[in-house]
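Bit of a strange request maybe. I'm writing a small parser for structure token strings and I need a real example to test against, not something I typed by hand. Could someone generate the tokens for this chain?
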Amino acid sequence: MATTVKIEFDITFAESIWSAAKAGLDKSSNEVLTISRDRYCPVDTGKLKASAKDEVIENTEDTYTREISYSTDYVFYVHEIPYQHLNPPTATWKFLETPFERHEQKFSESIENAVRDVL
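Reply from user aminoacidic:
Good idea to test on real output. This should exercise your parser:
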């Protein structure tokens, strides 16, 4: 006696899930950038705050990677050296790490919710 199992897979459905997962990551990544830039990034001249970016650095059929960054020649010093920044009042020296750590769980939740909406 033989048993046959037939599995059909709808690639369109898989693509919808992949697109939803990417959209969830996009949303979370943008939220972290916005919070970092608007609440925690120290402002003197505004150059550091203006250099904030959130971009896709890899987008293949099996990998999707975003990078949140600041790009000035002094960003390392402002981010890594403890200092009491005063402008804005919520500014901190770990202005990118702080919001990322506080919203790390939201990355997973955002992706899960986006995928769940497709299902």
